[in-house]
Specification:
By secondary structure, the chain is an alpha/beta fold. It is built from six helices and four strands; from the N terminus they run αβαβααβαβα. A four-stranded parallel β-sheet has the order 1-2-3-4, with helices on one face. Strand 1 (about 15-20), helix 2 (about 25-35) and strand 2 (about 40-45) form a beta-alpha-beta unit.
């Protein structure tokens, strides 16, 4: 309602917000849903601690699953999960496990992103130093 009060929006419009699993709470997710967001994208990336640490993420796998479940409980019926592949230390088994575990949550959408090494990032420095 808050969003619709500020902008002219079609009644069936998809209104998306993004969230980091390490910073959202059940309360903040409920507030976002009440504010008019009807879709949420969670930046999960991986469900393995070592891979999340390599990415500099602040959440744990447990927090990622909790954030997803809290989003459902808050009323979100359209949830996207962002995943990343090509992470240092990732294996085919860990990638497969992350995919299976996320699919078990039954998100409406999964976005897959390849890790890209860009100049000026810690990964670029690590890659160039061997």
């Amino acid at each position: 309602e808050e969003i619709r009060a500020c902008f002219k929006i079609l009644p069936n419009a998809e209104i998306t917000t993004e969230a980091n699993p390490g910073t959202v709470t059940a309360g903040s997710l409920a507030h976002l849903h009440r504010a008019g967001f009807n879709r949420i994208s969670l930046g999960v990336q991986s469900l393995f601690d070592n891979e999340l640490k390599r990415l500099g993420r602040i959440h744990t796998p447990k927090e990622a699953v909790r954030a997803f479940k809290d989003a459902r409980s808050a009323g979100f019926t359209n949830i996207n999960v962002d995943l990343m592949y090509g992470i240092p230390e990732e294996t085919m088994d860990s990638w497969r496990s992350t995919l299976v575990r996320v699919l078990e949550l039954e998100p409406e959408h999964i976005s897959l992103y390849s890790l890209s090494v860009e100049e000026g990032t810690p990964f670029f420095q690590m890659y160039n130093s061997g």
